[in-house]
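#onboarding

Welcome to the new folks! Below is a worked example of what a typical request in this channel looks like: someone posts a single protein sequence, and someone else replies with the predicted structure as tokens. Don't worry about understanding the tokens yet, we'll cover that in week two.

Example request:
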Amino acid sequence: MRQLRVLGLGATMILTAGLGVGLILSAAGMLSLSSVWDFLDTTPGSILVILVGVALLLVAVHFLIQLADERLNAALFHHEGDWGRIDLAPIAVKELIAGILREDIGLDRFRILLRHRIDGVGIAVRTTLSPDQRVTEVGERIQRELTKHVADRTGVEVSDVTVLVRSIRASESGTKETRSDETHA
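Example response:
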């Protein structure tokens, strides 16, 4: 895969350099545009135009893949281990948090948002509590448990945990709602 990437970058460099040199020579009057147009009207010229068009499309696809890789890399949470970097996908962090909220705290209705912070991850939990639960006790327990367990289990430091209690109502029989939103940079 690496050899293919190097080959693609080399071809991209040659193509863009060739187009750049051709345009500079045309602007300087060293290459006649009328002779270029005459050549492009021939069959070999048409084939050359098609090949350049395909090459430009491949260059665009290459840059699209690079952009997607950069976005994916920016979304990952990182931990520097003893032998190198450990990357963690946001969905994995959300699954861990959801398990802690369900198993350790007993919540069944919540929404998780993650934010990249300089010093780790910011976690926002939006939840619904039952009338018999104390908001401050549950909120502080969520903050304490997530700060402790996420850092211990993933190596990613938790910079802050924000808890929003969206409503207080009796649980509906048989319905459980668990949602996770996208990670925000």
